[in-house]
Specification:
The protein is of the alpha/beta class. The protein has 14 helices and 18 strands. The protein folds into 2 domains: 291 residues, UDP-N-acetylmuramoyl-L-alanine:D-glutamate ligase; 157 residues, Protein-Tyrosine Phosphatase, Chain A (Alpha-Beta Complex). Helix 2 runs parallel beside helix 5 and helix 3 packs across helix 8. The termini are far apart.
């Protein structure tokens, strides 16, 4: 298969949806020669922050002169982002070659009478195969959903990280917060240390699971802590302390913005100290360098782009907040970094999310809200989301076309208001491409009626 053919093949596998379980992925990996056993791994799960922590850990390993793989999901723009080595996405040719190898083994499974693997299982197998083929030393593996029955949960890592636990994907993870915590804790392996920032009842479940596996657990606020320092729109400083690690208020510079990223960095630092015990290349110097350099697109990312009809640049925040916990973090970041700014919010949310709760957290009455659907078959319809948004803001418009929505939001912001794009990773990836000049905006026409995909409500 070439790259386009591999995407078509993946799209065909998507008809199976989400089917948790490890039997299919285990058999598929057996047929591929158990590639996941050919390098060391770090496993990361959590409701929010797992992607950021994964990026930090991968950067720490790279700065330690270690050949490093990174597997993440979902992607912002291209499937190739999901499989990276030393910060570089897999090439389209290698992606196609790995999917071709996986497809051959899936065909063998089908001939055996086995169930067909899901899209995510095929991608996971391809990533593990790619990392083995390219001889990485370590791979940082981000969980797709939950942990216990997630396709990635076939590895025995050097360290497991559970960022936090909130109520998300409950239907697939036991229906309750306790069920979600049980699934997150499912990545814990015998004797493998665990680092977490979970609190309350979820922490109790994680602690109990760690004890049952004879795994040491390191808890943020108990075994290590972080303390915020200076902040600016271009970075922040913070202190890390840990009696266990013998560290007292070590000052770090962090490229990523937001108080939540300070907590995420604390998890990454603690994990790095544990990794140092088995690999001296990972040390305090390389951790400092990595956090100063780490990037994670689309997570409270501040861009300055040419404004529409104004001399000043348009300050824009791109954030993949897609659940109430993420919206809470985004709202806090906006209040911290841009406390006096009037705002235009460009939002798209999936219909199976807690839409009303998310809007209530983020939207202020004087915000201007522009609504558009994410690029997903789970997207909340634009008129439905707009109607819900009117309960929280006076001025709401909607567009079916994402680029038209961005053009209108840019026009409304005009370099005078802060523009915030959020609600779903399936939305912000495309918007980010346009803002960075990697795709073109359409010409902005005059007012149009609802039949043309736009509706204005102002008071």
């Amino acid at each position: 298969m070439n790259y386009r053919e591999s995407l078509t093949y993946l799209d065909g596998l998507n008809v199976f949806g989400v089917r948790l379980g490890l039997a299919r992925i285990k058999r598929l990996l057996e047929l591929l020669g158990t590639p996941q056993d050919h390098y060391r791994t770090i496993h990361v799960t959590g409701t929010n922050g797992k992607g950021s922590v994964s990026a930090m850990l991968a950067t720490i390993l790279q700065q330690s002169s270690i050949r490093t793989g990174l597997y993440i999901s979902p992607h912002l723009v291209s499937y190739t982002e999901r499989m990276q080595i030393d910060g570089q996405p897999i090439s389209e040719a290698d992606f196609a070659a790995c999917l071709t190898a996986v497809r051959e083994k899936i065909d063998e499974m089908m001939a055996e009478g086995a169930e067909c693997p899901t899209q995510f299982e095929a991608l996971t197998a391809a990533a593990f195969y790619y990392f083995a083929k390219k001889k990485v030393e370590y791979a940082v593996i981000e969980v797709g959903l939950g942990g216990l029955l997630d396709s990635t949960n076939v590895i025995t890592p050097e360290v497991s990280v559970i960022t936090n636990v909130a109520l998300e994907h409950a239907k697939l993870c036991g229906g309750t917060l306790a069920g979600v915590a049980h699934h997150k804790a499912g990545i814990i392996k015998d004797g493998v240390p665990v680092v977490t920032a979970a609190t309350g009842m979820p922490l109790a479940i994680i602690r109990e699971t760690a004890e049952s596996h004879s795994s040491d657990i390191f808890v943020e606020g108990e075994d290590f802590s972080v303390e915020a320092g200076e902040i600016s729109p271009r970075g922040q400083k913070f202190f890390f302390s840990s009696t266990i690690a013998g560290v007292s208020r070590d000052l770090y510079a962090l490229h990523l913005l937001g108080a939540h990223q300070v907590q995420n960095a604390g998890l990454a630092i603690m994990a790095a100290y544990l990794l140092h015990n088995g690999d001296q290349r990972i040390n305090e110097k390389t951790v400092h360098e990595a956090l100063r350099l780490v990037v994670w697109p689309g997570r409270f990312e501040v861009l300055e782009v040419p404004a529409v009809g104004a001399a000043d640049d348009q300050i824009t925040v791109i954030d993949g907040a897609h659940n109430p916990a993420g919206m809470t973090v985004l709202r806090r970041g906006l209040d911290d970094y841009f406390p006096t700014s009037s705002r235009v919010l460009l939002l798209g949310i999936l219909h199976d999310k807690a839409v009303d709760e998310m809007l209530k957290i983020l939207v202020r009455p004087d915000d201007i809200v522009v609504v558009t659907p994410p690029q997903s078959d789970r997207a909340e319809k634009a008129p439905v989301l707009a109607e819900k948004a009117r309960a929280y803001a006076k001025t709401v418009e909607y567009y079916e076309d994402n680029r038209a929505a961005l053009a209108r939001a840019m026009e409304l912001a005009g370099g005078r208001r802060l523009l915030v794009c959020a609600g779903s990773l399936y939305l912000i990836g495309g918007l980010r491409q346009v803002l960075l000049g990697k795709a073109e905006l359409p010409e902005q026409s005059g007012p149009s009626g609802p039949s043309e995909g736009r509706q204005r409500h102002a008071s």
